[in-house]
Amino acid sequence: MTETIKHHLNDAVLMAYSAGTLPEAFNLMVASHLSLCDTCRAQAESFDALGGEVLEQMHEADAVALRPECLEATLALIAGGPVTTPKEEASQCAVLPKPLRDYVGGDLEAIRWKPIGMGVKQAILPTSKDASARLLFIPAGTAMPDHGHEGTEMTMVLKGAFQDEDDYFARGDVEIADSDMHHTPVADIHEDCICLAVADAPLRFDSLIPKIAQRFLRI
Amino acid sequence: MDALEQKQSFFDPPVQLQRNLFMLAGVESEIQTTNVMKVTCAVPARPQRTMKARQEQVSVNTSPARLLWVEHVNRIRDHKDTQAFAELFDHFAPRVKGFLIKSGADPSLAEECSQDVMAALWHKAHQFDPTRASVATWIFTIARNRKIDLLRRQRRPEPEDLTWGPEEEPDQTDVLTLQQETEILGAALAKLPPAQRELIEKAYFGDLTHSEIAAETGLPLGTIKSRIRLALERLRHAMK
């Protein structure tokens, strides 16, 4: 499955994910993509390796000694036992990768859709305010509502497929658009499409109704 | 030396080794100095060594420090070895504390937090996969996640686990190769021109936003990526 992904995350985003400097919504996008894509997972772990080396080679002056009693304190902390987090078993047949299931509270059936017109639905996910994350449901053959955004927007297909002016995107594929890109993705005619979309600045669907045009793909 | 060479040949995927030796040539002198140091502390006799003894022998000729840290984590996992933990703590806790301070934590929070990170290392020792990461890499990821938790008060979504954990008895050649690739990456980082190196440090210490991060590092990430990729494929295969 993982080899079918053609549109990957770029190195800048993977490095920022590794460094831990992305907004939460983008972390969610990256974690979801890595769950489906070994190519990017390996690249992300390579950036982790770089982070490990940066830590290892930290200048003497930047490493800060702990008070001498800290080792004993840490051993005491260890003796107190681990902070356990419940381990969820991987679900092979879920449509949503685990990071998304954690935000939704389950798989597709748990998504609380809100209609936004012309059969398109969305569910905004709770992330920090510096960026937004939402799931989008686009009926087969329907165009995504035209929308403006100021920063970077990434859209990953979870189910079905969509096509924009240049390319075809199937499960796991990510489209990265910046502010000067004006694009109109259209869901594949064969199946309803579910996507994860994240954006730097909140997406605004402007004057929704006039701009929605039903467009059909390859017919 | 004969005995060592024999042990070495046990692992010997000749092409791989030659390439690594070639690539390591530039840092040979540093490695040798470390060897002298590590030989003395890597040899304290502990009983019941089979795979691990071999691993240490190899480490004398290749990447001693990194393999030694792997060994330390294994000792924590298998024997709850507080001496091994103390040595890891001495080396890594000040680095983690420095990392957190540079990322914006005040010193007392950074100190508390680096103790949490080191405690997590103890508790998660069984999850450490030396075919996918060096100990420094692993500690970096734990520290980074704590940073996001504490300083930014955000959740850190993590990718789905491939399986419940690393293989029980990972192939020692895979461990060796990954640790070597990390060594090569580290040597390359050390040799970067100061300006470029500083940029990378800034990226990891959180001084750059993601749009400012230049992803082209000029570092040999491709080789380590292909090792990690292989390890991932093996895990996926094991899961089926």
Domain count of chain A: the total is 1
Low-confidence stretches of chain B: 1-61
Biggest sheet of chain A, strands in spatial order?
1-2-3-9-4-7
Estimated radius of gyration of chain B: 18 Å
Instruction: Indicate the overall shape of chain A.
Output: elongated
Q: Average pLDDT value of chain A?
A: 85
- Which two protein chains have the largest interface (Cβ within 8 Å of the partner's Cβ), and how many residues from each? A-B, 67 and 84 residues
Q: Any idea of the CATH class of chain A? A: Mainly Beta
Tally of alpha and pi helices of chain B = 11
Residue share in helix of chain B: 55-70%
Structural class of chain A: alpha+beta
Order of helices and strands of chain A: HHHHHEEEEEEEEEH
Give average pLDDT of chain B, whole number: 75
Strand content of chain A: 15-25%
Number of strands of chain B: 0
Radius of gyration of chain A: 21 Å
Describe the structure.
The complex is a heterodimer of chains A (219) and B (240). With 219 residues, chain A is of the alpha+beta class. Chain A has a single domain, classed as Jelly Rolls, CATH 2.60.120. Chain A is built from six helices and nine strands; from the N terminus they run αααααβββββββββα. In chain A, the strands form two sheets. In chain A, strands 1-2-3-9-4-7 form a six-stranded antiparallel β-sheet, covered by helices on one side. A three-stranded antiparallel β-sheet of chain A has the order 6-5-8, with no helix packed on it. In chain A, a hairpin with a 2-residue loop joins strand 1 and strand 2. In chain A, helix 1 crosses helix 3 (38-56) and helix 2 (24-36) crosses helix 3 (38-56). Chain B has 240 residues and is mostly helical. Chain B has one domain (2-239). Chain B contains eleven helices and no strands. Chain B has helices at residues 2-11, 14-24, 28-42, 51-61, 64-79, 82-102, 107-123, 135-151, 172-190, 194-204, 221-239. In chain B, helix 5 crosses helix 6 and helix 7 (107-123) crosses helix 8 (135-151). Chain B is globular, with a radius of gyration of 18 Å. Residues 1-61 of chain B have low confidence and may be disordered. The interface between A and B is large, with 67 and 84 residues.
